[in-house]
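Hi R.,

Here's the chain you asked about this morning:
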Amino acid sequence: MQVLITKCSVAYLIFLYSIAYTVSALAANNSIYLTQSGSSALTLNITQTGGGNVVGTSNARATLSGNSMTVDLDQIGTGNTLAATVAQANSSSFTLRSTGDTNVSTLTVGGTGDTAGSDFDLTETGDSNTLTFVQGAAATATSANTDLVITGTSNDLNITTEVVGATNNIEIDGSSNDLDSRQTGNANHSLTLDLTGSSNNIDVDQTNSTGSISGIVDIVAVTTSGVIDIDQN
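And here is the predicted structure, written out as tokens:
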């Protein structure tokens, strides 16, 4: 099923059970407010093209919960906003692609339940974008894998994984980007960073509560005038 949303329209989507759904917004200034709950097998595809599009806000976040979900979200344009919460999602797949400048994306994962066996792929292409990704804040949030690819300049990235067994793979190609990565929780953590560009500011913090837990940071950097700060304890 496909719904066409014209300019300045608002779509309210409420999912009460497992369903496949596609939403395409083909003009600017579209807004989608989404609340989904169900046991499993949601397939959700959203594409917004143009400037000023919205999927959720800080006061009315898009919310997803369930197992074995497949979610694909594309925002193409300038000044778009994403504010979403994945409350619980075992064995699920999430793909977020943002193309354009001055976009703001906020994604909170596993705040109330487990995300074991899930995969999160986040791609930002453009300049002066802001991405905030928080995984965890619940003791049961475990072992999801996150891949982040950033292409552009002056992007602001804040990645926090308060989970058991966090794995983050990050690729940054561009200059004057700012990355803050924080991994906590009583389990092995891994961060792999491939960095190309100049004047980037990278801060990595890995914190474990026991001496038997390992934290791994693997960085390959081709850069000039950059700052890389790693703190492990």
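One quick note: The two ends are 50 Å apart (CA to CA).

Cheers,
M.
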